[in-house]
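**Paired protein data**
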Amino acid sequence: MKKYRFRLEAVLRVRRIEEERAMGELLTANQAMAAAEAELDRRLEHYRTVSGAEGPVSQEAYLVARARQDAAAAGVVAAGAARLAAEAEAERMRAIWAACATRVRALERLDERRRDEHAGEVLREEIIVLDEVASATRLIGARR
């Protein structure tokens, strides 16, 4: 009997490469999400430290303080939006990786099934050969 060879080995190899690539992209997306989270935290901390105009101040001082607060708030909003976008991208990459992993596992299960079937066929052939040898031995023994 021929040695076992999985006919879809090339497809499995390509699927594994796709899975590894998707895992790398997921890692990159998770790192981008962590960076966006850190930036949001930094902007929030800056927003908390921006002081407003306290007490009686001139109109110009009030407008300058208010502009600083508005700019800090806009920075927080932009960082929050960037974090949401990074989170959505990470989730998309996670879904792509999960789909790739599912395809690889399906091919691996198929390979395992085929390998088991091949082992069963080999065992059946060995049993047939052993039966033939035993029959021939009995036949030779009966002639003596």
